[in-house]
Amino acid sequence: MAEWLKQVFDHPNLVGSLIIAAKTFVVYVFLIIGLRLLGKRELGQMNIFDLVLIIVLGNAVQNAMMNNDNSLFGGLISATTLLVVNRIFNIVLHRSRHVERAMVGEPMLILNDGLPLQDRMKREGITHDQLMTALREHGLTRLDQVRMCVLEVDGSISVVPTDTETLKTRRHFKAIRMP
Question: Fewer CB within 10 Å, N- or C-terminus of the chain?
């Protein structure tokens, strides 16, 4: 029984623990940047290839993070590092508009008054078929039925039909930042 408990709760030394945490941090940052470079639409419409990519990415980086350490404590160090870094990243995003804009992006107009903005669609990887799919999801079949389409930061496409009432305001709201 004592041998079994020793194997279950085996742990790396302090240097090994710090190496696991550092490697986990580097892999996390690398994946965030890499996934951000894929573009908004790639993350918004996940298909079978994207699912396989995520599974394989997790497996590929696991060994790099763990430094050949298969202990329970090593896994807990890696998981804790991911949770802490993710929380810090979210706090930074919440407090810095510049970082949020760089990492999350901003909504982008891709169709205006029935005319697709081809340069923007191309830059964001939106095809004409994807645009038409978004219109059909909103019960529309023609481009001239649409006032505007916006590619949102989560990869979804918002559609505003021409027959909807548009309310305009001059107010600009800023998020309240807590000290």
Answer: C
Output the pLDDT for position 179: 43
Higher pLDDT, 95 or 175: 95
What pairing do the DSSP bridges indicate for beta strands 157-161 and 146-151?
antiparallel
The topology (CATH level 3) of 108-161 is: CRO Repressor (3.30.240)
Calpha distance 130→46 (Å, rounded): 13
The domain locations on the chain are: 2-103, 108-161
CA dihedral 23, 27, 33, 36 (to 10 degrees): -150
Helices (H), 9-147: 14-38, 40-44, 48-66, 72-95, 97-103, 118-124, 128-137
For residue 72 the two structure tokens come to: 């329970």
